[in-house]
Amino acid sequence: MSKQDGRNRLVSAQPVDDVTATVLHVDMDAFFASVELLDRPDLRGLPVIVGHDSDRSVVTAATYEARRYGVNSAMPMAVAKRRCPNAVIVEPHFEKYAAKSAAVMRVFGQFTPKVEKLGIDEAFLDVAGALRLYGTPWEIGTAIRAAVLRETGLHCSVGAASTKFVAKLASSRSKPDGLLVVPAEHTVAFLHPQPVSALWGVGGTTQEKLERRGIRTVGDLAHTPLPSLVAALGPAGGQRLHDLSWGRDPRVVDTGVSEKSIGHEVTFGRDLTERDDVARELLRLADKVAVRLRRADVQARTVALKVRYTDFSTLTRSRTLAEPTDVAKRLHHEAVELYDVLHRPGNRIRLIGVRGENLVPAAASNALWDDDAPWRETETTVDAVAARFGAGVLRPASLVRGAPEQRPPHARQDPA
After folding, report:
1. Are residues 239 and 313 located together in one domain of the fold?
2. 224 and 349 share a domain?
3. Are 153 and 207 in contact (CB under 8 A)?
4. Structure confidence by residue, pLDDT tens digits, 208-248
5. Is 53 flagged in the annotation as binding?
6. Residue 254 annotated as lining a ligand binding site
7. Of the N and C termini of the chain, which has fewer Cβ atoms inside 10 Å?
8. Could you list the residue range(s) of the whole structural domain that residue 235 is in?
9. Does residue 282 lie in a domain region?
10. How would you classify the pairing of strands 179-181 and 298-309?
11. Catalytic residue positions, numbered
12. What is the Cα–Cα distance from 299 to 123, expressed in whole angstroms?
């Protein structure tokens, strides 16, 4: 769920006579919450939070009215209720979200066969081949929004640009219920005033590093000498952000996205309570998933975490990556971050699982950058050693203390 609350909305309200912005990013507006409001129209215009009404739960989704109070997905419900005490909390219904998602994707397929599904509520579309039939990207985006509303009763936002990165940024800026077209010749002018945090891959730590150097906007970064960026962020990170700041993104819409997934989970004979023990098990599972991804010659766009507590209540959380991966280090990092949002002292965990979803062929991932390259080289070396001498001959040092024979008794591991 985007943190965009609509206050900085920017749209192309009038027709744009441009045919260069043929990459569309379509993103459903507050998708889970909007689906719930279809059955609860009396709640429209109110701050609504989707999630279990328990202080130990987390926010699944929130309407734009709730977001203006600072409520976001994955936030502890206790925090959300303090920020927005007048919010209405409704229980999630994931089967309804899946059905609406399928209907939305069918609408996209009516306009172009080149659809790259990113998750349950967003996709990239390549409409270059649809221009003769449906008109300009502005006209196609307008028609898609109308068709989605007609077929599902839901609103979506559309960004149109000549690259995937700019299209995704444009859809975010047009939220909610908007359309923003960025012609190729206007790409740099659109990008440079944006905050540096708008760049794909700039999280809190990277943003702090850049701002300490006086780099606060994309334009600031674009005009920073590349050697300075490399010194601050490393060769891959510096080059990546420099390319993005000038609108350079060679990736194409990939229609080979698979709905299949690869995962592993483990059930413990004795519940885990310590965060470090859970993190170590996540590393073990991430390593197993990564090995299977590499054997299948695929990479995962999405990392999913599954946690089952001692009372058999089960939570799942997922995160879509900027670039797909088949590296255990990356899978583990993302899984631990997802877990840290859920962790509470005293929680007793019966089962935990890691899954790679939205798989793409490794050779077709079209990665704009590859921060995982050093780790991939190490892990493929371990793969080769395992193939010759057997699995487990080499493993991360952090797993030695938690070797299988020392883990909780009667633990069961299952491919998921």
Report:
1. no
2. no
3. no
4. 989 999 999 999 999 999 999 998 888 888 998 999 999 99
5. no
6. no
7. C
8. 193-246
9. yes
10. unpaired
11. 122
12. 18
